[in-house]
Design a protein that fits this description.
The complex is a heterodimer of chains A (53) and B (269). Chain A is mainly α. Chain A contains one helix and no strands. Chain A is rod-shaped, with a radius of gyration of 23 Å. In chain B, 75% of the residues lie in helices and 0% in strands. Chain B starts with 7 loop residues before the first helix and ends in a 10-residue tail after the last helix. Chain B is globular and about 70 Å long. The longest helix of chain B has 39 residues, at 221-259. The chains are: A mainly alpha (53), B mainly alpha (269).
Chain lengths: 53, 269
């Protein structure tokens, strides 16, 4: 396999790109989900307080 | 001259707004962010796991079991990464142009968010296509790069992606960024047929297409099957990434809305 370094480079680049993009998207989703849940909880709590006469 | 209602052209003109409105209502039904979040959450694991399975099967088959090419030897195995990346680079840009059309004609809010998220993924896959093409070119052509029509038109596509990413974030008012980027996406779509037909229109170093819609493939089935599997895997992976990023973008817009809501600041009556 004289072309092995070229093949490894191609597959390695694809693997690195896939890992970076997917881990980035997963972390972003996790962070946003947690932040949104916390904000909605605060928001609903405040709304409930406002409705109380 | 009086307008004749039975005139075909006038009928078409009067029918067009109805058609636009009907098509618009179809798209707006799926523009609801809450509905998209639910659908996206349901689709996400299926897209992700099937992408992993198809990609591993395709690349594993291509790397270890498919035969070497009689001329190119083992370097032909780069094809199982390069060709799906090249197909997706063009398909991703077509998706970006479709989002641009939806944004300009129907002001589809999800299309704007999807366009923001398709851009970076498309740019990465185009960069992968260019890099693997260059890596494949070195042992086959003896050079990393030539200013060949196919290579140059794909490089232009990469710059179009970069331009879109920059333009959509360039304005303080996001709506202006969405409009400008949508126009760029639609105008840049002219590069797609140039990429496709560059190997026919010009005498290029890049080989002609081995797979066409109309003709039989010019490669052996033992190479075609792993290529098909990896192409399906890459496409599902692209879709999974775009869905995940768009879901995150919808959540971020909700977060921004909640943070700027008057209740939070105590201004609500």
């Amino acid at each position: 396999m004289t072309h092995l370094p070229y093949i490894i480079a191609s597959y390695g680049l694809a693997a690195i790109m896939a890992l970076v993009l997917s881990i980035g998207a997963a972390l972003r989703l996790k962070r946003d989900r947690a932040r949104l849940a916390a904000l909605e909880q605060t928001h609903n709590h405040n709304a409930g307080t406002h409705r109380t006469p | 001259m009086p307008i004749n209602q039975t005139d075909g052209a006038n009928q078409l003109l009067s029918a067009s707004p109805t058609l636009v409105a009907r098509t618009g209502s179809f798209f707006h039904r799926y523009a609801n962010p809450g509905r998209f979040l639910k659908l996206g959450a349901r689709l996400q694991p299926w897209l992700t796991w099937s992408a992993i399975a198809f990609t591993l099967a395709g690349l594993g088959w291509g790397l270890f079991y498919s035969p070497a090419d009689w001329q190119q030897g083992d370097s032909v195995r780069i094809m199982y990464v390069h060709v799906p990346a090249a197909m997706l680079a063009s398909a991703g840009y077509a998706g970006l142009a479709a989002c641009g059309l939806l944004s300009l004609v129907w002001r589809h809010p999800l299309a704007d968010l999807a366009a923001v998220e398709i851009g970076p993924v498309g740019a990465c896959i185009t960069a992968l296509c260019l890099a693997t093409g260059s890596i494949w070119g070195k042992p086959m052509w003896g050079t990393w790069w030539v200013w060949d029509a196919r290579l140059t038109s794909v490089l232009v596509l990469f710059f179009l992606y970069l331009g879109h990413i920059a333009l959509i974030r360039a304005f303080d008012d996001p709506q202006r960024g969405y409009r400008a980027a949508a126009i760029l996406a639609l105008a840049g779509a002219v590069d797609l047929p140039i990429i496709k037909f560059s190997v026919q229109w010009w005498n290029t170093l890049h080989q002609p297409d081995s797979i066409t819609i109309t003709g039989a493939p010019t490669m052996s089935a033992s190479m075609l099957w792993p290529l098909a599997l990896s192409t399906i895997g890459f496409s599902l992976g692209f879709a999974a990434l775009v869905v995940a990023r768009t879901r995150a973008a919808v959540m971020e817009s909700r977060i921004r809305a909640l943070l700027s809501s008057p209740r939070r600041s105590g201004g609500a009556a």
